[in-house]
Amino acid sequence: MPTVYSYSGKTKAGETKKGEITANSLEEAKGQLSGQGIVGVSLQEKKDWKDFEISFGGSNVSDKDIVVFTRQFATMINSGLPLIQCLDIRATSISMDNKTFGKAISDIKVAVEGGNTFADSLKRHPKIFDELYTNMVAAGEAGGLLDTILQRLAAHMEKAIKLKGQIKRATIYPTAIIIVAVVVISALLIFVIPTFAKMFADLSGGKTGLPWPTELVINISNFMQNYWYIIFGGMYGLLRVFKWYYGTPKGNVQIDALALKLPLMGDLIRKASVARFSRTLGTLIASGVPILEGLIIVAKTSGNKVVEQAIMSARSSISEGKTVAEPLAKSGVFPSMVTQMIAVGEATGALDAMLAKIADFYDDEVDAAVEALTAAMEPAIMMILGPIIGFVVIAMYLPIFEMASAMG
Fold it and tell me: What is the pLDDT, as a whole number, of residue 234?
């Protein structure tokens, strides 16, 4: 993991120089400073929490920040500016808005000045620049097409952000409805029902004989008031158990497989995975990244263990001299239309172009799936929550109706 070091040393001219440097080890930091002509170095790891966060990649850098940086950097490279000058300009301007990102770019500039490649320098900040980014940059450097690759990478990231936004949009609306409904029902049980219960007790003189729905609701209300910590503790415990089980190899596969079988949501997850796979692999292949290496990157970013296993199976098939399409078809994860188009792309030597077409098609499919899910979730939630709230209301009015009937 990259670490920030404070250093003090002298230049060849005898001038004392102090500052900070980020490196993966003490030896690497000494090597960087030696490459800058600084000798007699005293190094000490910096413990300040802000620099600690920066050295580990910076959690305050958004995908949009990276897209803007990539677009502007590609334009600067295309205009003929030297790489180090581009990094220096971007570090200065970015630092005004985002010090974390700006310091990371400054560190990358120092690494490039020390003789590292641009791609290797980016790898020093894995939380900002992922494997997809660094591998495409490496391919661009090797082929002398860095500006083109950066533009392609920015376009890919913009579409990935759009896809992520579509998935978020599909979950926000039903989640909001459920939260509101839970809050309303909890408020009824904790604040409203006790008032009714006291009123019924006063009217009956402490005698029993309330209708069973009313008794049930009052008992639930009493339990929530007296043992709320058991409810919240149980919910927290279930979440912890779920997280633990999902972290195990067996649980990861089982839960991800179940997610693909969910009505509506499973269809959305499958289509989003296909769109992400096609877009990412197509971009990597078009940028010159070897397909075996590209499939590893795509598998890691698939977001679903079942999809990841299908992709790695396809990689094994290629390493044995076979096709990509056959193992993907056998997995049952990828629709037949997708595997057929991939097979055509392999046969014609235009796999990257075919994957781009698949991605464009499934981007539209994700849009349609989000709309279908949103349209179906509202009545489904109302069908579940409506009877619950209705039962609570009727249970509270039943004794009143019975008393009115008896008096009549």
Answer: 92
Can you spell out the DSSP letters for 22-62? Answer: EESSHHHHHHHHHHTTEEEEEEEE---HHHHHHHTT-TT--
Tokens at residue 34, please? 């030696």
Instruction: Give, to the nearest 10 degrees, the angle between helix 305-319 and helix 265-286.
Output: 40
Residue that has been written with the tokens 């899910």 in this structure: 373
Give me 287's structure tokens. Answer: 């940028």
Q: For the chain (length 408 residues), average pLDDT per consecutive 10?
A: 66 70 70 71 54 44 88 88 88 84 90 87 88 86 84 86 82 79 84 84 66 88 88 91 90 90 85 88 86 86 85 86 84 87 90 90 86 79 82 84 69
Sign of CA dihedral 147, 153, 154, 156: positive
Type of residue found at 242: F
Phi first, then psi: give them for residue 207, nearest 5 degrees: -80, 155
Token pair in block for residue 171: 């979950």
Cα dihedral 320, 321, 325, 327 in deg (nearest 10): -20
The rounded radius of gyration (Å) of the Cα atoms in the chain is: 30
